[in-house]
Structure formats: structure tokens, C-alpha cells
Amino acid sequence: MGYSALMLVRDEFLQIQSGQELLTNRGRRETMETRFTRMLGIKYPIVQGGMQWVGLAELASAVSNAGGLGILTGLTQPTPEALVREIQRCRDMTDRPFAVNLTILPTIKPVPYEEYAQAIVEAGIKIVETAGRNPEPFLPLFKAADITVIHKCTSIRHSLKAERIGCDVVSVDGFECAGHPGEDDVTNMILLPLAARRLKIPFLASGGLGDGMGLAAALAMGADGINMGTRFMVTKEAPIHKKVKQAMVEASELDTALIYRSLRNTARVFKNNIAEQVLEIEDKPGATDFEDIRPLVQGIKGRELFEEGDLNRGIWSAGMVVGLIDDIPSCEDLIQRIVSEAQTIINERLQLMGSV
Question: What is the mean pLDDT of the chain?
């Protein structure tokens, strides 16, 4: 993006905020308005992505209370009934909007997705984040309940498809992201400007984001907010063992691994002994048999890792943003810091460039 384009972005961003600018009250930023925040009624365009075993009420409520959008991970709960109880637990902790994630993927153990979707509707949830497969079969149910649907996509073609079928927001996942980045290997520096050119609905930037520079850059490239998973794992409220958090604080941008590439189901995880064993199996001549990997990657081992702090108990999703993480703040402090940094960049650095 050239100098003149940056100036246009700055002017557009400031126009969006006219009448509802960021106000300072005892050092706190009061609002940062985009199409996304107006749609959902939240203060800041910062979303905590759905994460297996991590998206519990403690974290989701902390993010929402801090002005972002917290998300409960539906399939972390063993049954639809347990999810309804977790939704109520989150409501007891916050009176602000929060969402539920429903990730639709092939699983070792069959999942009653329709029952989870029905439970979400009956619990009165008004924002759902979907991921994995095409969410179209669930949209009539969600739309009849006036639910806003955010769908996570790893490509522009899938983002456009999500828009066509009626999703309200797209979360665009670059190659940097944790979990499943797709098979195209395209980073956000390309995906976000393409999304800005081609999408009409609001979209979020996801992958590689963890600070105010990332938020400012995402807004500059046309996004309406950011979706952070890994960064919110390394907060005080994240329900995972402190040893796991500390490992991510100490990690560099090189400490993730791409597994399941040979199965065309690529996943970015933290690089530990288990991930390296998986890569060794995938490196063997011939086709990879998932049964050779299954004992290493069972989901229950990842949950035990988070509970017990044994870093080589299983695998866990982590994005390249671990290289930018160097502390374990509260969600409130993290969000305020990100917003403040982004606003300083927009109002001071870009304005200074414009005055030269």
C-alpha cells in the first residue's frame, strides 16, 4: 500500500469514527467503531476466536467485559445440554454480547452437530461463529432465530461463498493462523486486501494478530476488526496451565509446526515432541495412514495437557503470533493496550506522515 493509500485509509477510519471517536477516561479507551462493532453492539473490534478446551465462560466473559467479543467453544462441551449450562454460566459472568463457536469438521468420534445448533438457538444466543465445513445447512435455523453468523474462511473463494449463502461476517484466516489454515498457504498481507476489494459484508482479520500494530494494519487493509485465538490463550483468564502459557511466552515465531500436510488437512500446532513425532511419521515414504498418528493426536490428550501442564502430553493449536507474545496480561489490560497502540499509530504516526 502506497503513501496516498495510507492517507485514504486514515481519513476513512477517522470518518467512520466521527461523532463516536475514541475518548479517554482515566486512561481508558471508550470505543472504537467499525461496521462490525455497530452490527454487534460491542466497544472494540476485537474477537476471541473459538478454541477447543479454551473457550470456556471464564475467558469468553472476560473478553466481553473488556469490550471485545468473547466466544464459547461449543464442542468443548461434551453434550448440547452441557453447552446450554455453559452459556448460562457465561451469562452469569457478563451482561455484554458473547458468541458460541460451532466448528464443523470430520472427527474421530461422530458429533451431533444439529443438536448443538438447536441448543444454541434454544439458549437464545444471537451471535454464532462457524468454522470448518460449509455452514449453509445450519443457516435457515440460525436466521430464523435472528442470529448473526460469522464464518471463518481460509481463502477468498470460500469467503465469497460464505457471503453468497447469507453469512453476515467473514473471518479471513491467513496462513499464519493456528489450527487449520487451509491448503493455499496465502498470508494475510494478500488475503485482506483481496477481501476488501471483493466482499461487501464486514470481515475480520485472523492469524498473526496480537498487538496494536496488527489491529492498525488490519484496519488499513480494509478489515472491520481482528480475531485472536493464540494471543487470548496467553492471558490470566485463559483456563489452561501456566506452564503452557509460559511456553508460548518463551517461544519464537519459528516454534510452530504444520502437521497433517500429507493428509491435506493441514493444522498449525505448537512445536513439541508430539508434533515432531507426527512429522516423522508423515515423512515416511508412501501414503500416510492416519491410524499411525491417531494415538498421538487424540483430543483428550490436548485437554489433559492444558489441565496438567505436561507440554508433551499431546498437541495444541498455536499460531506464528507466539513470536510476538512476551507477557501474560488480563484480557482487560490486553485489549486496552491493543486499542491504545492502534489509535496512536492511526492518529499520530499516519498523521505525522501526512504532515510531511
Answer: 92
Q: DSSP letter string over 22-68?
A: --EETTEE-----HHHHHHT-SSSEEE---TTT--HHHHHHHHHTTS
Alpha carbon distance 229, 213 (integer Å)? 17
In eight-state DSSP terms, residue 146 is: T
Number of neighbouring beta carbons within 10 Å of residue 92: 10
Is the Cβ–Cβ distance between 245 and 325 less than 8 Å?
no
CA distances from 196 to 156, 201, 204 (A): 10, 9, 10
C-beta of residue 319 within 8 angstroms of C-beta of residue 176: yes
Q: Which three cell numbers stand for residue 38?
A: 455497530
Q: Which three cell numbers stand for residue 201?
A: 459484508
Residue 265: CA atoms inside 13 Å, Cβ hemisphere, count? 10
Q: What does the chain come to in residues?
A: 356
- Cα distance between residue 47 and residue 169, in whole Å: 12
Determine the CATH number of domain 3-239+329-355: 3.20.20.70
Query: pLDDT of 24-46, one tens digit each?
Result: 333 455 789 999 999 999 999 99
Distance from C-alpha of 339 to C-alpha of 176, rounded to nearest angstrom: 22
Convert the pLDDT of each residue in 335-351 to its tens digit: 999 999 999 999 988 77
pTM: 0.91
Cα-based distances in Å from 100 to 57, 166, 255: 10, 18, 29
pLDDT grade for 109, boundaries at 50, 70 and 90? confident
Burial 109-147 (b: 16+ CB within 10 A, else e): eebebeebbebbbebebbbbbbbbeebeebbeebeebeb
What does the angle CA 328 – CA 329 – CA 335 come to, to the nearest 5 degrees?
Answer: 130
The residue assigned the cell 464443523 is 104
